[in-house]
UniProtKB/TrEMBL annotation:
BP GO terms, sorted: SCF complex assembly
Keyword Transmembrane helix: yes
PANTHER family the record matches: TIP120
Domain of life where this protein originates: Eukaryota
Protein name as it appears in the record: TATA-binding protein interacting (TIP20) domain-containing protein
TM helices/strands, residue ranges: 6-27
UniProt-listed SUPFAM superfamilies: ARM repeat
Record's keyword terms, sorted: Membrane, Repeat, Transmembrane, Transmembrane helix, Ubl conjugation pathway
Length: 196
């Protein structure tokens, strides 16, 4: 359903934009953006168990749809009702969901700064976890590179949040910026992203 909706909105279809309210009701108020326990299962692979999340692709598609909505129909979407709990949950989710959420947060910081400022404290913790995450010592190069991409994506979102006037009112965000400035590795990445 999300993929069918994605194309007409992306192309600026007037019919979809006109009926957006009714379409969004059909999406159950973005509940597809949250992890659903009934879609998570454990697969027994002999000596170890593997967790499979069958809802991952659905959440990823939902956030990509939201990203498209922000580009084409921002005036018909209430970003304040979306940021918490949906975006906050996405920022603390799987890699494939975090990446579009960082992009959404960057766009919201630029287009709706007051809505982001209102909940900035609640967004700091998942961003903090992401930039401080360390892969296992025996991680393959692909996992290390993927983690670096995720850190850069989070730092790009933090850079956008840092540009919001009034962001210094959040003590948690000020502490996060202080942590970044004290870490030479993170500061170098942050500085290069800020100057892009």
């Amino acid at each position: 359903m999300f993929l069918l909706f994605h194309l007409p909105v992306g192309l600026g279809c007037i019919f979809v934009q006109y009926h957006l309210y009714y379409i969004l009701i059909g999406f159950s108020d973005f509940k597809s953006c949250l992890p659903q326990q009934e879609l998570i299962r454990t697969v027994d692979l002999g000596p170890f168990k593997h967790i499979v999340d069958d809802g991952l692709e659905l959440r990823k598609a939902a956030f990509e749809c939201v990203d498209t909505l922000l580009d084409g129909c921002l005036d018909q979407v209430n970003p304040s009702s979306f940021i918490v709990p949906y975006l906050k949950s996405g920022l603390d989710d799987h890699y494939d969901v975090k990446m579009p959420c960082h992009l959404i947060l960057t766009k919201l910081a630029d287009k709706c700064p007051s809505a982001v400022l209102a909940v900035l404290d609640s967004l700091v913790e998942p961003l903090q976890k992401t930039i401080h995450f360390k892969p296992k010592l025996d991680a393959v190069k692909q996992e290390v590179d993927r983690n670096e991409d995720m850190i850069r994506s989070a730092l790009r979102a933090i850079t956008s949040l840092n540009r919001i006037s009034g962001g210094d009112c959040s003590l948690k965000f000020k502490n996060l910026m202080s942590e970044i400035s004290k870490s030479p590795t993170l500061w170098d990445k942050f500085y290069s992203i800020r100057n892009e």
